[in-house]
Design brief:
By secondary structure, the chain is mainly alpha-helical. It has one domain. The protein is about 65% helix and about 0% strand. The protein has 3 helices and no strands. The chain is elongated and about 40 Å long.
Length: about 60
């Protein structure tokens, strides 16, 4: 996952390290999965997408 993310992010990131950002995104995804697996509540994929989009917006990456 890390190398795929890095490859996709490389042209989008001008002021951030694609290697670091791909690790951070991988960690966020892992965190969503862990939270969903230990939670008794229904997993809300829309909420996870909102968190991810907010993170990317802070980096200056907008959804195409």
């Amino acid at each position: 996952m890390h190398s795929n993310l890095k490859h996709v992010l490389q042209p989008l990131l001008t002021s951030h390290d694609p290697d670091q950002v791909s690790h951070e995104i991988s960690n966020l995804i892992d965190g969503f999965w862990i939270r969903a697996s230990v939670s008794n509540d229904e997993t809300d994929s829309a909420e996870a997408m909102t968190y991810m989009e907010n993170y990317l917006q802070r980096l200056g990456i907008e959804r195409p």
